[in-house]
Amino acid sequence: MHKKPLSKQIYDARWCYLFVLPCSILTGMFVIYPIGMSWYFSLLDWSGFTKEAKFIGLKNYYEAVNDEFFWDAFIRSFIFMFGTVPVKIVLGFIIAVFLNNQVLKLAPFFRTVIFMPVVTAIAIIGIVMTFVFSPFNGPANKFLMSTNLTSAPIDFLGNPDTVLPTVMGVYVWKWLGITMMYWLAALQTVPQDVYDAAKIDGAEGYRLWIHIILPIVLPFAIVIILVEAVGALNVFPLIETMTAGGPFFSSEVMEIYIFRTAFVTDSGTMPRLGYACAAGVFWGVAVLFITVLQGLWMRRTRRI
Amino acid sequence: MKKKKELKISRRTVMKGALAAGAMMSAGSIPSKLFAGEYNIPDPLKPLPTTGGNMRWIDSGDMKGVFWKKLFPEYAASRGITIEYDGLPWKEINKIVPIAIRNGTVHDVFQLPLGMDPGVAVAEGWVQPWDDYIENIDEWLAAFPSGVYLPGVNQFNGKTYGTCLTANKRTGTCLLYSEKYMSEAGYDPQAGRMTYSEIRDAAKKITKNGNGQYYGWIIGGNQVNRWEDVVHTFGQVGGAHSGRGGFTNRHINFQNGKFQIASDQYMEAVELLLQLKSDGSAFPGVMSMNAPQARALMPQGAAGMIFQGPWCIGVWGRDAPDWKYGIASEPVPDGKEAQPLYIAEGGSNTFWLSANSTMGPFAGDLIRFMGTEQGQIYWAQTVGAADPAVNPDAVAKAGLTGPSAQALSMFAENILVGPNPIVRNKDVGIVAAKSRVPDPSLALVIQGLYTGQLKGVEAQLKDCNQRYEDALDKAVEEARADGANVTRDDWVFPNWDVYSNYGAEKYQEL
């Protein structure tokens, strides 16, 4: 068959291109352009708001990979991810299984209660949680003391050993509702016929879930894990409002590190937007790499 | 160099004014004018535009904000404009102003981020001079104490780009204490400057008396600059003579131009903080609260002592008027005489007029009024010692009593004007613009030592000192590479007598 020339193909589909144009412009302005500029800025020695910007090639990258605080924050981000995502996935699944049960009359109520933190502003949650975990009259410590679980108040957010687990706990609580909703959506794709057939075949309890339901929702699980993993690497507002990365970097994840270098410090020195961009680009590539790996994993799982 | 008069606010002058006003006023530590809210705003010296408009103003808030929020509505009504005021912590100013400058939406009147070299702001064209908007500006400037308006600091190319209404003669680490707890512990800080041992013992006794309900000492430990401020000032009181201000002044002994972070005095100050913790005298949870949170807990009876600034006076006067507290000078190491503290020449709270602003006539009119004696009196009556008015006569006439008057008296007694490298060589400003505080900064090192994440005070401070030396060397090197005529010798002032003000004549001797 004779193939039309490209210009003719484009002309024939002109309306399609026209309708795609607004989206393309917006994507270009708010996604492509900022990414491109951050790559460019990462090659500059630039404070971010003076005219003076010196091209220094890859020096910012070299400095970043030789900075122990950069790697500490890098690793801490992954600790955060590996510490929160499995908990959210498992807890969210268990809750979804219970709340997916049509017999449970109060399921909508519990769904709402668990989902409520999701729709609450994260900065507000961060600030409120600093009071909740305060060693002085904070409800968490009051509970622990009144039940004799501890004899002295615990400085959850001021102790380097407890700060990260505490923030991770708040993160899980805040976003558990959305994980639960993902799982509920996945579970509701399982046809009722499958449950009925399984019951007829004698598959009940854990056998039903392990051998019948789980294989069906597995592709959803991959997507949920992917979304959750990327989400757990973007926790700036929660950590900034709860600890600002402290004490002494104990909760400094990559986003806080980037933010710290991008703005004027408390010590009163100039910000380093070029360096912050280099750290951000490095971090973005790392997250992209993980996303690609998960995508490959998902493709492989689908084939199975 | 023109000889300048030294800025002198003697303790006697302040106390005379305080006593005179105190006799006229009813009892109480807060002047009656405070929070009353009526000002006699004079007519402008020349007609202002009749087009109205909205003037946007941003500064670091605190007691300034309290004053502006009372004055601005009255001023705006008298001039037929509106004023939008944002009083934000420095942490926010440091983020918002650079972004606003970058996208051309900065407020009409603003403060520069901490550490930002004013020379850069002028050279970049972000600001415009006040000269066209303040009527008879030369006459107006002449009414200020010498040393407030200086070339390279707030004046450039013969024009005044930054206006200062306040003096920088204050410290942020005074001993503020609960009278009741301190008295029960058997101490009276008004009897004389307390020693480190006495502070430690008082904190222990208060904690013991508190029996878990309150503690000896509190600090906003997650606001890292608090650690550095305490150690820096206590170190100075202990005898580590050094400058204050940004990275290129702070912690540097101008006798030899070297950082003295690893000095014995700094180490003693850090050890005091660690001892307060190891004694169990520190309020539990200091690491998870900032300075305002810690300050707010004092009137609630949570702790006996805090090392903070005079800005607490106004806040406590407003929020807890019945709470009895005292203010005293920073403690001194055992067996030592307290040494002077130093400030650089110039004022504080410098206001800059955006180059894009069309509200210059109004901003200039307002700033001009605030620089007059009446404006300064109004300022002093509300802001008190938190940000002392720059005009000493106005301060004396403001009728300050109680802790405000006492704080000003302390500052007048304890603080001297020290050398300022940027006054000596304006290219030091280029170094300031190039400088980067190394990671971890002194503030973070002290925090790390306090939390136990870092070990060994001496080793850590020595490492930190070396990082600071290297960072300043690097900034000087970069500035020189860009054509600045500057060396580390610009930080050496061999004629600095640490017991007297460093005035214009001293710069001439160099």
Q: Which CATH class of the largest domain in chain B applies here?
A: Alpha Beta
Per DSSP E runs of 2 or more residues, the count of β-strands of chain B stands at 18
Helix-and-strand structural type of chain B: alpha+beta
Q: Please indicate the count of domains of chain A.
A: 1
* Total number of helices of chain B: 20
**Based on CA inertia axes, which overall geometry of chain A fits?**
flat
Provide a count of the helices of chain A: 13
**What is the CATH homologous superfamily assignment of chain A?**
MetI-like
Outline the structure in words.
The complex is a heterodimer of chains A (304) and B (510). Chain A is mainly α. Chain A has one domain (59-303): Orthogonal Bundle (MetI-like fold). In chain A, 69% of the residues lie in helices and 2% in strands. Chain A has 13 helices and two strands; from the N terminus they run H-H-E-E-H-H-H-H-H-H-H-H-H-H-H. A two-stranded antiparallel ribbon of chain A has the order 1-2. In chain A, strand 1 and strand 2 form a beta hairpin. The longest helix of chain A is centred in the N-terminal third of the chain and has 32 residues, at 68-99. The radius of gyration of chain A is 24 Å and the shape is flat. The two termini of chain A are 37 Å apart. The mean pLDDT of chain A is 89. Chain B has 20 helices and 18 strands. In chain B, the strands form seven sheets. In chain B, strands 3, 4, 7 and 17 form a four-stranded antiparallel sheet that branches. A four-stranded mixed sheet of chain B has the order 10-13-9-14. Chain B has helices at 11-24, 63-79, 90-103, 118-123, 137-142, 179-184, 196-210, 225-238, 264-278, 291-297, 311-319, 360-371, 373-383, 392-397, 402-414, 421-424, 428-434, 442-451, 457-481, 504-509; strands at 54-59, 82-87, 109-110, 127-128, 155-156, 159-160, 162-163, 166-167, 174-178, 215-218, 252-253, 258-259, 303-308, 325-328, 341-343, 347-348, 351-354, 415-417. Chain B has 510 residues and is of the alpha+beta class. Chain B folds into two domains: 29-168 and 345-404, 3-Layer(aba) Sandwich (D-Maltodextrin-Binding Protein, domain 2); 172-341 and 419-510, Periplasmic binding protein-like II (D-Maltodextrin-Binding Protein, domain 2, 3-Layer(aba) Sandwich). Mean pLDDT of chain B is 88; it is low at 1-37. Chain B is 43% helix and 12% strand. In chain B, helix 7 (196-210) packs parallel to helix 9 (264-278), helix 8 crosses helix 9 and helix 8 packs across helix 18 (442-451). Chain B starts with 10 loop residues before the first helix and ends with a helix.
